[in-house]
Structures are given as C-alpha cells and as structure tokens.
What does this fold into?
Amino acid sequence: MKPKTRLLTLLLLMITGISSFAQNNLSPKYDERVELLSVVFRLAQSPEYINNTVKTHADATDKYFSKYSNHEVVKLTKKLRKKNGVSFDAVMSMAIHLEIKNGSVYFNPQLNKDGLDDRWGNYADEFVLALRRFYQESNFNAFYKANQQMYDLACEHFQIVSNEIKTGWFEEFFGYKPKGQYHIVVGLLHRGNYGPKYETKSGEENIYSILSAYKIDSTGYPVFEKYQKGTLVHEFCHSFCNPLGDKYYPDMKSKASDLFTSVSSLMRRQAYGSAKTMIYEILVRASTIRYFEDNGASKEVVKKLINTEKANGFLWIDELYAALERYSSNRTKYHTLDDFMPEIVKVQNNLIADDLLSEFKSNCPKIIRTSLKQQTKNVSTALKEIIIEYDKPMASYGISDKGKQPKMDLEWQNEERTLLCIKVELKPKTKYLLHFHPPFNVDKKGFPLQDSFELDFTTGE
It folds into this structure.
C-alpha cells in the first residue's frame, strides 16, 4: 500500500460503522464475463489487467491460457488498445454488455449498444466474434468452473465491505431511484476499480461496482477490509455522475480544458487523460465525500478527505463541495442533482486555473534541507545516515523506485515529523538516486510534496 493510500485508509477507518441511512445487504458476485475480459487483456499485456496479488490464481491463469497468447482476439485487443485506447473502464463496459449462454458469447440482446464505451468504435462486433472463438477454443468455462472455490471465497470475504453500503443514500442524494439493481463484482486479475452501468431497451438501469483484490491472507486467499467501502461508493457514484458530466460537458469544456492543462501530469499519472474524465472524477469524488459526511463523518475528516483529493489534482473540489452543501440544503428547489448542475457549471466556469494552482502549491510541503547535497561525488561508504528536512509536518514519506537505491531504512527523527532519517548501506563506486515522489510524500493536511525532489550522489573507492 502506498503512503498516500495509507493516509486515506486511516481517514476511512475513522468513519467506518457510522451511518444514518438504511442499509441494503448487497451480495458480491464473481462474474464470468469480467474474468473472461480480464484474461484476454492480461494475455495482451495490458498493465491494468495484470494483477498478481492472488498468486495461485494468477499462476493458474497463465498456465492454462499461455498457449492462446497469439489468438486473434489477443492480437485485436493489442490493436484496439494502441489505436483507440481501449483499456481500463472501456474493458469492463464491454464485459457487462455481454451475455454468456449455451457455451457462447454474445452482445446481450436486451441492451442498447449505444451504452458501450465510445472507444470500441466500429470494432465492437469484430471483437465479440473473436472473443466468442477464444471462449470456445480455450474451453474457458471449464477453467472458470475449476476455480469456483477461489471465486466463492473472494466473494465471501468481500461481504464485510458490501454489508457497509447504504444504497438508499444514492437515491436520496442524486434524487432518483434506478429502475434496475446494484451489482458488486469482485475480480482477481484486474487492477483498479470500475463503475460501469447498462440500460436495457425497456429502460431498466443496472449499476455496477467492480472491485479488485490487493491483499491476501496467510493461505494466499484474497481478503478485504471495511475501509474499502470508500472505493465501492466511489464506483457506484460513477453511474450517477458520468451521465451528468456528459450532459453538461459542452457548457464546461472550455474552462475544464484550462483546469486540466494546469494539472495534466497529475491526472495522467492516475490514467485520467482528458478534461471530460476529470469532470467525471471530481463529481464522483465530491459525492463520495458527501456520502461519508451524510453518514456521520466529522468536519475534520471531511476536510482531510477534501485535501487528499486536492493532492490528487482536483483543485476546485473545495468550491464544488461547498456547492453540494448548497444543493443539500435546498432540496425543495433542487429535487435532483441534475436540477442543480447548472449551478455547478457556473461555479466551475468562474474559476481561474492559474490562481487555483498557485494556491494549491502554496499549501504543499517542500524539502528545505538535506544533510548530503545533491550531486555530491566521492561520498564515503562510511556514511550511515542521510537527513531530509521538510518545511511542514508530514503524514507519510516515500521514495520511488526510479534509479538505483542503496539498502536503506527510513524513520522519523522528531515528533513533528519534519526530519526524516534515512539509514543507508553504501557500496563503493556506485551512483545512487533517491527520488522523492510527490504522491508518496504527503503532509498532515493531505497536501503532497510541491515538486519531485531528487537526491543523487556517487560514492568513492
């Protein structure tokens, strides 16, 4: 778990178990369609679909399917990823639009194809035909049935999370009740989490939260924690927020593009490659925080959650959250969040991107001193520790794996957590690089390091 993730985890743990909304017990499921698409994109070497946390299952998958690595559907997947950017949530959008029946794979005839992610373009039919052949030629269902015990255990272990979710909140906050159902799907082969939905031709709407596994127990089976309900809420919110982003994006596009440009590196680091995606995410993240406040989170926790999202690059989430508070206080006027969206558009369009970025950076911590200067040469191998000083109390520290690192142990040297001691074991004639990555180095208010910091040095004889 990365340092910043630890901070968010602690915040979510603080609010676990507090609730004022009716609880709906949702049973997590394992979905053959999700597993099928995950296997295909794993074979295509898509990083976001290579999750080896549950090693026994990952190894079993590779052993069974390795001989299909050059199958036509894998080749087509690589082409679509490169040409159209078919990856991440586009994959799960396809998964939930499929039907597996009588040993074959089809588009679900009850669904509207226009609900499929746009990145599939004109290749959707060709892909499904190739996928069908892969499913049949690999005898995929035999693999799926053989691993049923693992799937069942994963779902059983995830129940601790799904029991925490109050679906009534979504209907109350967004102002309408979906005609269909909520679905929780657990996956073992994909990384990241997804919140797709589909709508049937009769107007029934089904909302998904597709979660991955990142932790195992001593026996190698996946386990989950209550704090992961934050992710579950986030993914469900996508089904409500993304359509609003689509509807109002034409009115937000110009300013959203300016805002995206100012934080594009932060956005792309999180696989958010466009201004529209950023709009989806900021609406989802503000709504998720609202879920926790409405279910008993303190103002202090809410502020820290907001700052955490600012650290992720969502610079106007303060202004958006204040707008959502106005919305919640005026529900007789605004029956749905859709009714209130023109006000959110006004809030965004009145922002000045440069001012937001300057304010954000002024809140970020900096490294102000190092006991060893950058680019020092002939450093003695007798050196046993390096001191790093931050200008603000820190919640987390972290050094990325960029460059060669010495064997080291890190610990805070003072109670305020402004002095970090790095105990090192150095080898002669070696060039080292300690790269302090902003998302790993977060202060106690949730703000990341202002800029990347690199401490490079070379040892002598």
Summary: The first strand starts at residue 98 and ends at 101. Residues 366-459 form a domain with the Immunoglobulin-like fold (CATH 2.60.40.1220). Residues 1-7, 17-23 have pLDDT under 50 and may be disordered.
